[in-house]
Amino acid sequence: MAAGVQDYNRTEFDRLNEIKGHLEIALLEKHFLQEELRKLREETNAEMLKQELEKERQRRLELEQRFQEVLKTRAEEPPPQQPPKGPATTQTNHGSDKRSQMMRSRVQKWFYDRFGEYVEDFRFQPEESAVETEEPLSARRLTENMRRLKRGAKPVTSFVKNLSALSDWYSIYTSAIAFIVYMNAVWHGWAIPMFLFLAILRLSLNYLIARGWRIQWSIVPEVSEVAEPPKEDLTVSEKFQLVLDVAQKAQNLFGKMADILEKIKNLFMWVQPEITQKLYIALWAVFLASCFFPYRIVGLMMGLYAGIKFFLIDFIFKRCPRLRAKYDTPYIIWTNLPTDPQLKERSAAAVTRRLQTTSSRSYVGTSTPAGVSRDEDTGRFHGTKKGNFHEIFNLTENERPLPVCENGWRCCLINRDRKMPTDYIRNGVLYVTENYLCFESSKSGSSKRNKVIKLMDITDIQKYKVLSVLPGSGMGIAVSTPSTQKPLVFGAMVHRDEAFETIFSQYVKITSAAASSSDS
């Protein structure tokens, strides 16, 4: 009977969890539908503005056409006849004026018919600011753009792979032939014609491939990927996962591009003077060589160096990383160039070192008051925003945060044993001491909402992933204790791995010390 009641309670709990999951999915669908509705409204407003703009353009064109027609008719019309003012001489003068006006109008008409179109091309008109309409977010459009980007970048990636294969001597015969041909062309001054001939040859092969010929001109064999058919209907979770995947790829790609651009900028801005000095000396050497030596000799020297470096030296350096780290100057310069985040970290580390040295000097210079030990005096420096550390968590005065987490790790405590939403999730800061794991809540001033866990009472600790739809291994730590039915989860931790290593190492240290003392 008791087993049946437990099974019934479990099924009810599973049903509640299932209903909760459906409710979250419904909320996400409602959010996406609201966003699509807002974008559709904006799009309809943009369409109305475009229609009005087109109408105004048509009106302007019609007015310009009418104006041109009026000018033509005025040019073709004869001048008004004037009443005779005198004898026959005035009539002959009037006839000659009339003939000259007719000839002028004919010449103007002929000139406009012949060159009017070219004259209209040079007429200045104000620029029209065309507003590009942004497409709404669509999973189908997103996947199609990803495939287009992959297909567009395929020739560049294949070219880079073939160059790397030539340098790595992937095919010995191909690399040997390329090395001999290149060095011979450089020696005889045919390097530029050789590259132009290779470009013409490649265009000719592309023409034959476009005509249906099957030609494969690649050192590395191309791996044909199976094209996945596009899905017609995607669920909200699949759309969310797709957006996260694209965002992660874009983040990594933009990060690599930013690193390259920042390194080039820092190289020319003398951020690392010892590295930029080498480039400065090299540029001066090349400049002086170009001034005193003929261009043929300078080109021959640079071409021979490039061929030997590409085909021989790089091959040796890639096989021997220690030699490359010692003697490959371009590689050493590139790897030692810092990026902007690295410069910020260095400046922050330098500032912290200065503060530590000044604080240590001031602390050594000041004498502690009588009756107070040095441990008690140093304990005053370890406090939280609400007060001293040991007073916040009701611990002894010798319990202080470890040096790794003096400021703590910001996170949220997820207590799945609680039913109320206010007690289910709490935002705060996590600290680790020699014997305790302390969580300080940021919402309430009382210590009742804080959590103190003794490291000896922990039965299990592991990394945890709060949301399964997110990529990666998660940003949470699950801690199991005998007093809780479900593990306590510290989620939304930016430095999750550092916190986990610190807690786990301190836990192992405490448990091993307790085991050794019990054995003795």
TrEMBL record:
Source species, domain of life: Eukaryota
Region ranges (Disordered): 72-102
Pfam families, per the entry: GRAM
All copies of domain GRAM, residue ranges: 387-465
Membrane-spanning parts: 169-185, 191-209
Keywords assigned by UniProt, alphabetized: Apoptosis, Coiled coil, Endoplasmic reticulum, Membrane, Mitochondrion, Phosphoprotein, Transmembrane, Transmembrane helix
GO BP: apoptotic process; negative regulation of toll-like receptor 9 signaling pathway
One Gene Ontology cellular component: endoplasmic reticulum membrane
Subcellular location: Endoplasmic reticulum membrane; Mitochondrion membrane
Lipid bilayer topology: Multi-pass membrane protein
Subunit and partners: Interacts with RTN4 (isoform B).
Name of this chain's protein: GRAM domain-containing protein 4
Species of the source: Phascolarctos cinereus
Gene (name only): GRAMD4
